[in-house]
Each structure stands twice: as structure tokens, then as C-alpha cells.
Amino acid sequence: MSISGLPPFNGFISEFLVYFAAFQALNYTHATLLLAILAIISLAAIGGLASFCFTKVVGIVFLGEPRTAQAARAEEASRWLTAPLVILAGLCLAIGLFPENFIHLAFAGLTDVVRLGPVQPAMIERIGANLALGSRLFLLIFMAVLLVRKLLYRNKVIATGPTWGCGFTRPTARIQYTGTSYVRSVISFFRPFALVRETEVRLQRIFPGRTEYQSRVEDIAEVGLHLGLALPLLALLLLVIVSLFMVLLTENSRVPVDDPNTHLELTMIDEVMILDHSGPDLALIELGSFYKLFFYAAFIFLIVCPLNGAWGLVNVPLFFAGVGLVYVAIGLVESGMARFKMNLVPKFILTSLISVFFAAILTMEFVK
Predict the structure, then answer these.
(1) Helices (H) and strands (E) in the chain, counts
(2) In whole angstroms, what is the distance from residue 62 CA to residue 3 CA?
(3) Whole-number Å distance between alpha carbons of 208 and 367
(4) How far, in Å, CA of 31 to CA of 321, rounded?
(5) CA 258/CA 348 separation, integer angstroms
(6) What Å distances lie between residue 362 and 35, 246, 350, 355, 365, CA to CA?
(7) Would you say 3 and 50 are in contact if contact means Cβ atoms under 8 Å apart?
(8) CB contact at 8 A, 36 and 28
(9) Is the distance from CB of 323 to CB of 301 less than 8 angstroms?
(10) Beta-carbon contacts of residue 356 (< 8 Å; ≥ 6 apart)
(11) Phi, then psi, of 115 in degrees rounded to 5
(12) Distance between CA 245 and CA 326 in Å, rounded?
């Protein structure tokens, strides 16, 4: 109830202060006035949706038939677990009934905001006193209604029984309300802002087969983030990875730039130097080549799949498996392509440079 902004809890106090600020902004003009109107409308819609949301949660969790065997065997938690919840609920109620000091603290935090006009202390006192009076009157009326109900039902016998099963003599948990069916009316009202994807198999024959129905409400912000941010960034990341892989082939003298096994043209100075060495010197040169290839392969893998420290030792086999996949990609390239002619090698290197430059330009434009 508090999170829905209902009295006499602290959520009502905080939401009222936001409403108060929005209505005070109606005295301004131009953009500030427009933002104030949008804030008031948004607060009203959010408050209604919050109440509807938590009504759905209570109905799904505490009403109806148990949906699983574990839910059927559920019991109340121990007092050690419920006591903190009771204390927090009591604090929410206390703030709602005695909000004056907390409102003073809220307005005191705004004194350093230069662009805001000063709030008169008398107005703060009046707001706190009126909110306290309203919350206490609401609680008093609520307790009076409960007392009258108690008196009216004092001598009546209250019987319990199953609810109406819509014609089914033995209803099960599979045919009761779900969260999706409960919010269908709200989704219909907000249909321009809610993307609903439905998949259904209708009855089409006298003796039908299996029928199915699935519905999913897509978050419009998530869809927009996916289409407007994730996919462009993924395309830019792909450009960078391809360019880096081309640099790997070039720096490590792999096909199609050069053949590491033959070096028939002997045009690379470093390979000519290798032919003049043997023994430990040659071993160190080959070790350096291994490190260079390993670094590039690891760099590419960590861009594609950054490791998480929370995974612990799982990172070790995952890292070497990823580097192995990069090695496999190098082998597939060398198996499917022939070595370029010498005049095509500069064009190959320049292509990687152009790809990275193009990705950088797109990134800067995207950031704008």
C-alpha cells in the first residue's frame, strides 16, 4: 500500500510532495509549464498502475489454487524473518502519521539548489500539518469502518466454500486467472504504448488437435534500446573484430598475407633473419611468434566474450576454449583461401584500416 502511494503510509507523503512541486511549477511558462503538466499526468498514471500491479501480485500470490506442489506445502516463515518486515511496515506507518520532521528534512536538502526558489517555512509547516491531519483522519475512519463491520458480523455464522468454477466441477490451477489475463484490460487501454506478441492455434476442425495460446508484452523501452542502441553497437563491434582479425593475419604472417610454412617469396625481413638462426635463438624467436599470435587471439576473444570475475575458475577453461576457437578460425581461413599476390597485400592491410576508421566515425556520430 505504501509503494502505491496510498494513505496513511509514507508513500502517500512522498507522492503528495511530488504532486505539490508539479502544481507549483504551473506558475511558470514555456517548457517548465509543459514539463509540469506531463509530470502531473505521469504521476496519476503511475499511481493507478502501481495500485493495479500490486493488486495483481496479491491476487496471484495469496488467492486461487496452489500452482505447484511446493506452493501447496508453503508455511509462514519464522518470526526472525517476519519481525524485520513488521518493523519496516511500522516505520512506514509512523512516517505517514507524523510526517512533519521528515518534510522539513526533505525541504532542507533543497536549500543548496540554486535554481529553485526559496520555500517559505510557514508553507512547510502547513503542508506537514495538513498531511498529518489527513493521514490520521483516514486511519481513524478506516478503524471505525472495521469496528462497525465487526459489530454487524458479530452474531452471524460465516461459512467457507469453493468459489464459482465457471461450470467446471473440479477446477484446477491451470484454468484460473494468470497475471497476463488479469492485466488484459489495462494492456488494451495502453495498447499504443505496449507491444503485445500473440501466438495461437485456433480450433479449426470438428475433432481439433492440440490448441495453444501464448502472449508476451514487450517492453517498448527495451525494444527501442535493442533496435536503436544494441544492434548498431553490435554492427560496429563486428567491424572492429573483423579488422582486428585481419591485423592478426598480417602481423603473424598468416594466409592470405603470407604462408608461415614456406615463405616462398622471402620478402619479409624478419623471416630472412630467422633463416640465419638456430638453437636457443631460434627457439626464442619462435616463442615470440607464439606470444604474438596468442595475444591477438586472446584480445579478439575477450572483446567478443568478456570474462566475469564472479565465475571463478570457470574462466580458465572458457578462456582457452575461446582462444582455441580463434585458432580454428585462422585454420579455416588458411584452408579456404590462397595466398595473395604481393601487390594485393597492401590493399588487404588498408582494408582493415578503413574498416576501423569507418567504425570510429560511426561511433562518434552515434554518440552525438
Answers:
(1) 14, 2
(2) 19
(3) 54
(4) 56
(5) 12
(6) 33, 20, 18, 11, 5
(7) yes
(8) yes
(9) yes
(10) 239, 240, 243
(11) -75, -15
(12) 9
Nearest to 13 by CA among 96, 121, 94: 96
Q: How much is the mean pLDDT over the chain?
A: 80
Q: CA angle at residue 285 from 284 to 287, to 5 degrees?
A: 60
Question: What distance in Å separates the CA atoms of residue 296 and residue 257, rounded to the nearest whole number?
Answer: 16
User: Which residues, 6+ apart, have CB-to-CB distance to 193 below 8 Å?
Assistant: 220
Contacts within 8 Å (CB) and 24+ apart, 15-21: 15/43, 15/47, 16/131, 17/103, 17/106, 17/127, 18/43, 19/43, 20/127
Q: Are 277 and 285 in contact (CB under 8 A)?
A: yes
Q: What is the pLDDT of residues 70-98, one digit of tens each?
A: 877 888 888 888 898 899 999 999 988 88
Q: How many CB atoms lie within 10 A of CB 5?
A: 22
Q: Which three cell numbers stand for residue 357?
A: 576508421
Residue 283 has pLDDT above 80, yes or no: yes
- Tell me the DSSP string of 93-116: HHHHHS-HHHHHHHHHTTTT-TTS
Q: For the chain, first and last CA: distance in Å?
A: 42
pLDDT digit string, tens, across residues 260-270: 666 555 445 55
Question: What's the rounded Cα separation, in Å, for the pair 40 and 197?
Answer: 31
- Torsion sign, CA atoms 185, 188, 193, 198: positive
Give the predicted TM-score (pTM) of the model. 0.52
At 339, list the grid cell: 595466398
**Residue length, the chain?**
368
Q: How many Å is the Cα radius of gyration of the chain? A: 34
Q: Which of 269, 267, 246 is nearest to 353 (CA)?
A: 246
* DSSP code of residue 196: E
| Whether the Cβ atoms of residue 237 and residue 303 lie closer than 8 Å to each other | yes
Within 10 angstroms of residue 213's Cβ, the number of other Cβ atoms is 10
Cis before 8 (ω within 30): yes
**Which are the contacts of 4, defined by CB distance < 8 A and separation ≥ 6?**
11, 47, 50, 51, 54
Residues 6+ apart with CB under 8 A from 362: 232, 236
199 three-class SS = strand
